Amino acid sequence: MLIFEGNDKFAYRDPTCYLYGDTYCLFFTVSEKDDGYMYNRTAMSKSKDLINWSKPVLITPRDLSVNYCSPGNIIKKGDEYIMCLTSYPMPFKYSVRDHADETARVFTISTKDFETFTEPKMLIPKRDTRPEDLGRMIDPYILEKDDRYYLFFKQNGVSLSVSEDLEVWDYLGNTKGGENACVIKHDGKYLLIHSPKNGIGFMTSDDLEHWTDRGLTTLDQDMKKMPDSRLTAGFAMKASEKSPYGYIMFYHISANRDPETHGNASLCMAFTDDFKNYHYEL
Asked: pLDDT tens for residues 220-263?
């Protein structure tokens, strides 16, 4: 099911969603081409029925030096809702380089009402490491488990850090995997959803550290009709009790051209109960 369709000027990528009361709050990257540069920003849209979505509202600045984008997920802490996201600096024309430089880092912002948001705050996933020494990292996702927080992020595969307060993080290591990690509980195990070269990949674990590859899906992608496309950035969440399906899978499809990091990307969603069979209409 198509949510927002991209074009030569704007692309819609990297979705995440949170059910706030009876409203689905969808966050995603808006990539804008302008005078040879690529501006990435985080946007929000809302829906009560998963069919009608409000006009996207941009919640981060138009600033090539930070390009805050790629929201990972949202967790509740006290009376705040905390969302992790990425800085994706591109202070150069995309014909020179079509992806962020080495200063890309991971951040959080928070809200109490899904109307106003704080300024982004950088995370330090490796204790006592200077920000300039962290290395390039993107696509954070925070999982709360047993009163601790686990931060997944893209660096040397899927990296993992742990914290008791969202402030001080200890690095635990990494496992082979793609971008846009998303981790949920399913069938008694942790299900890690990630982005291989094309499609949505799956891995399972009992302890968040040792993972077993479970293959991938390309959903409704038809490579005969879209031979140069990439389906990626899968994010799964439980649907509301009103939904006929157990889970919603959000994702985007982009074209491998001019450049793929924009690629006229469109946001889509599908529905599933078992992550094997998918439906595209409610």
From this structure: 898 777 788 999 999 999 999 889 999 999 999 998 777 888 99
How confident is the model over 7-32, as pLDDT tens digits? 999 999 999 999 999 999 999 999 99
As a whole number of Å, the CA-based R_g of the chain is 18
Q: Please give the full DSSP string across 100-124, using - where no structure is assigned.
A: --TT--EEEEEESSSS--PPPEE--
Up-side HSE of residue 25: CA atoms within 13 Å toward CB? Answer: 20
Alpha-carbon span 53 to 117, nearest angstrom: 20
Give the residue from 6, 2, 54 showing the smallest Cα distance to 30.
6
- Residue 33's DSSP bridge partners are 38
Residue type, 242: K
Are 216 and 193 contacting, i.e. CB atoms less than 8 angstroms apart? no
Report long-range pairs for 149-154 (Cβ below 8 Å, ≥24 apart).
Answer: 149/75, 150/183, 150/208, 151/84, 151/106, 151/123, 151/125, 152/72, 152/181, 152/183, 152/192, 153/106, 153/125, 153/181, 154/178, 154/179, 154/180, 154/181
CA distances, 276 to each of 53, 129, 179, 279 (Å):
27, 41, 21, 10
Q: 96 is written with which tokens? A: 């020179």
Return the C-alpha torsion angle 120, 162, 235, 135, nearest 10.
Answer: 60
pTM tops 0.90, yes or no: yes
